[in-house]
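thread from #wetlab-drylab

HS: before we spend reagent money on co-crystallization trials with pyridoxal-5'-phosphate, can we at least see a predicted complex? here's what I'd submit
DV: go for it
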Amino acid sequence: MEYISTRNSEKTFSFQDVLLRGLAPDGGLFVPKIFPTFNINELENLRNLSYRELATKIIYKFCSDEFSENEIKNLVEISYRSFRAKDVVKIEKMGKLNLLELFHGPTLAFKDIAMQVIGNMYQKVLEKNNLKINIIVATSGDTGAAAISAIKDRRNMNIFVLHPDKKISDVQRKFMTTVNSKNVFNIALEGNFDDCQKVVKTMFADKTFSSSINMSGVNSINWSRIVIQIVYYFFSFFKISEKGEKINFSVPTGNFGDIYAGYVAKKMGLPINKLVIATNKNDILKRVIKTGLYKPTKVEHTISPSMDIQVASNFERLIFDICSNNSKKILNLMNDFSQKREFKLEKESVEKIKESFCSESLSENETRFIISEIYKNNKMLIDPHTAVGIGVTQKIPLKEKTIVLSTAHPSKFSDVVAKETGVEPNLPESLQGVLTKKEEYKRLPKNLENLKKYILKQI
Ligand SMILES: *Cc1c(COP(=O)(O)O)cnc(C)c1O
């Protein structure tokens, strides 16, 4: 399979390039030149596979030049060994809705599902090529923890994680800062998540710096994360749908990575009706679908911090596809964006997006209300991100069955959940150590040169 950049569809890249670079050299995002598809019969043959079998089949489609199917099978096996759910994920019925619980991995958010596999993929590729890399990643809370858990103690990699100082939950921070491993470096940046992401993007774009340290990224812009996330759309679809039935997915969205994986699943032939973009007050995606204008406003700090994002990086992949892989058009839009901090989509593009997507947002009060209602009616504790995913389905009339992605364990946001339900959600026993272990992190100002110096000193 060949890959191209959303900003240059002429030059092609291998899966190994895509995995290790994260971002294309021209600043664009990697996408496959042609998406693999399953016809109806092939889809039915996937219906009864176990999660791990399905993961092997789907992931292999995207990286068969780099790995054998058996290698992928082994990577998948090793990666999900520590998960607390037999099938990696769990599905809970809740009336008309189905909750797809994606938080049974080591750091209690959906990001573990992709990151654990990526850690093992990196190791394999680096060993084959005798390479050493430095991973630098910005996190709105959960990516960092998932990445650290996947990369810690590995020989060929260091990982630097930038989180926005004081803007993530205590439990989120502790999952990162209590790991105590020689190759893990935590940085609390004095700014918000968009600042963290911008700094990382600028470092990538600085070719002298990024190549001097063999810099790599595992942010949700890394294509391999998307590939691994496609799997649970297929898996849950088969568990919930009858043959020939279309269903919806509601996805709590920040950087547009998780929901874009759903879009790829749809492109591959999975009969998804609508993908619902569920956002908190940071509703740039809802606005762009309404008006075509992509214009970030100030990031609002909310009780669902992993979605406190205004620049939804993966959205570029969607518009590239909607504009029929016209990379010149994307380049123009992105130039507009870097100069004016906004761009406008054509009406036709917006209509195309609406064929697959709809969007709603939830206020803080509405989110709190959902957490308390779900506890009252279903005796279930849900985290605030999942609550946003559920809440928006009450604002949009949808006839079909809907699967809501439940993206984090309630104990990761225990303060909010306890306040709304009166019940303190407990961390799974095996993870309770993070609450008391010693934390280690470096607080740094929002200054690029400073940051580079710090990184160079550690490696
Ligand atoms: C990262 C995250 C999201 C948002 O996912 P994107 O891929 O950035 O859209 C939602 N919920 C939780 C709990 C997360 O950690």
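DV: The two ends are 34 Å apart (CA to CA).
HS: ok that's useful, forwarding to the group
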